[in-house]
């Protein structure tokens, strides 16, 4: 029998009469049942978050760090259970789900360490005669209740990138987990409850769109942190009022393959970067620009590599590519690929939908204006283009409304720094794919890809404000 999951509302376990069934995208089996929080539940959680903020901001740093360390221990102890749940409700291959849990533990442990390093500075102010005897002291003060909305593709770790720094910085947080796969964070809520934070410090509740919209518009929240689609994120920013807004949005990440790069190595890395979790990753490799001298060899290597991808049951430890999150996602990308072919593109491999699966697909000769190139595919496809020079590759990689991360494979040091200077992205990855991320680095994009940065230390910067005390030495 499928487990019944209640949601976590200000330290209380609740449910409503609006059931939410979570089914496995692989076989449509019922994974678990929860329910949508009501407007009254959210109101209760907001008021409790305001009350708990007084306790959280007064909590000593060592207590915040200790709470986070305990959370990390609890998650690590239940790691296989949580990884299996991610594989069931999100259809993420078990091998990748295990990595996500490992990263989640790391994210929390980094938050515990960053909690100990939240400090300020002493500023000399006697730069004018009128300020003789004066100096300033600054500190980082928590800002208040935080509204957090996390996506389906990393149901644990991307949520923890909001919850863990909120706790570390002495704030309170209300998280809306993804509707497709909320059970992972509802399981994590059991661990939060065990740690014993002040009631109202953390609430984790599925919400329908109308209720969840209050996370955007309610002025009692001091920050909105959203990870999801660009269209939704930028519309939220318009309606968020005076609160801070952090947006981690989409991309169509580019890879540049310079003359002289090892195309066999690059093909293997693109295989991993374009097709992990069926391409449902915001930094998934979508566009590859290869020097013309290596273009044919690279395409041959990539097709051969892609055709070895094992497709199947996410719970099979050998599975590399599972089903997409829902039928709508499959139908969308199938339409995009068909449109690209109608416009003159060629499929080197793949291009077929079967149920919830979409074959890993390599496309050449696509129009740069086609959706498979110009928009975020969020699917197991990659497009490949020949370029005449490294400068041409930089120009084409920048020819996008997105700018999250890019990968550059080159043996030329000057080209490496040229890319660092010229690529309009939040992060450049030298000699690897743009899918690389470690959870303490600054992560985020420019242009339509987002606003501000995550990575625990950088999230804490948005979750705190600088306070200044001016001291006048009277003697």
Give a verbal description of the structure.
With 475 residues, the protein is an alpha/beta fold. Strands 15-18-19-14-13-21-22 form a seven-stranded mixed sheet, sandwiched between helices. Strands 10-9-8-11-12-24 form a six-stranded mixed sheet, with helices on both faces. Strands 1-5-4 form a three-stranded mixed sheet, covered by helices on one side. The N and C termini lie far apart (76 Å).
Radius of gyration: 24 Å
For the sheet with most strands, the description reads: 7 strands, mixed
Major β-sheet strand ordering: 15-18-19-14-13-21-22
- Number of helix segments? 16
Relative strand content: 15-25%
- The average pLDDT value, as a whole number, equals 97
Distance between the termini: 76 Å
Give the assembly state of these chains. single chain
Number of strands: 25
- Helix fraction, binned, reads 25-40%
| Spans of at least 5 consecutive residues with low confidence | none
What structural class results from the helix and strand content? alpha/beta
**Quick one: overall form?**
globular
Give a summary of the structure in a few sentences.
It is built from 16 helices and 25 strands. It starts with a strand and ends with a strand.
């Amino acid at each position: 029998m499928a487990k019944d999951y209640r949601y976590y509302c200000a330290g209380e376990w609740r449910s409503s009469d609006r059931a939410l069934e979570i089914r496995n995208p692989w076989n449509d089996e019922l994974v678990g049942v929860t329910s949508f929080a009501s407007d009254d539940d959210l109101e209760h959680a907001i008021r409790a978050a305001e009350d708990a903020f007084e306790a959280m901001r007064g909590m000593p740093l060592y207590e915040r760090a200790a709470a986070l360390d305990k959370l990390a221990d609890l998650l690590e102890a239940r790691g296989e259970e949580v990884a299996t749940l991610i594989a069931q409700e999100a259809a993420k291959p078990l091998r990748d789900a295990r990595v996500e849990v490992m990263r989640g533990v790391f994210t929390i442990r980094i938050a515990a360490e960053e909690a100990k390093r939240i400090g300020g500075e002493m500023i000399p102010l006697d730069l004018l005669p009128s300020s003789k005897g004066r100096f300033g002291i600054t500190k980082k003060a928590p800002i208040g209740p935080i509204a957090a909305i996390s996506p389906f593709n990393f149901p644990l770790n991307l949520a923890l990138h909001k919850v863990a720094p909120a706790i570390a910085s002495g704030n309170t947080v209300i998280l809306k987990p993804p509707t497709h796969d909320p059970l992972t964070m509802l399981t994590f809520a059991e661990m939060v409850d065990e740690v014993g934070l002040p009631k109202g410090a953390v609430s984790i509740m599925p919400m329908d769109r109308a209720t969840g919209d209050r996370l955007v518009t309610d002025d009692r929240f001091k920050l909105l942190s959203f990870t999801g689609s660009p269209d939704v994120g930028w519309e939220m920013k318009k309606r968020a009022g005076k609160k801070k807004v952090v947006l981690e949005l989409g991309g169509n990440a580019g890879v540049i393959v310079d003359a002289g790069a090892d195309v066999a190595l690059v093909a293997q890395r693109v295989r991993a970067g374009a097709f992990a979790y069926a391409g449902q990753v915001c930094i998934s490799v979508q566009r590859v620009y290869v020097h013309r001298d290596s273009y044919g060899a690279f395409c041959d290597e990539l097709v051969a590599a892609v055709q070895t991808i094992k497709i199947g049951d996410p719970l099979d430890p050998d599975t590399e590519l599972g089903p997409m999150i829902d039928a709508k996602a499959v139908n969308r990308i199938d339409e995009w690929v068909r449109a690209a072919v109608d416009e003159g593109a060629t499929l080197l491999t793949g291009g077929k939908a079967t149920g919830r699966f979409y074959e890993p697909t390599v496309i050449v000769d696509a129009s740069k204006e086609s959706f498979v190139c110009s928009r975020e595919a969020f699917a197991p496809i990659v497009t490949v283009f020949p370029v005449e020079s490294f400068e041409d590759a930089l120009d084409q990689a920048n020819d996008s409304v997105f700018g999250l991360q890019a990968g550059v494979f080159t043996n030329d040091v000057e080209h490496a720094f040229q890319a660092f200077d010229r690529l309009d992205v939040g992060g450049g990855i030298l000699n690897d794919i743009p899918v690389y991320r470690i959870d303490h680095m600054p992560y985020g994009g420019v242009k339509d890809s987002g606003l501000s940065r995550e990575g625990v230390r950088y999230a804490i910067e948005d979750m705190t404000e600088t306070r200044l005390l001016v001291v006048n030495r009277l003697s």
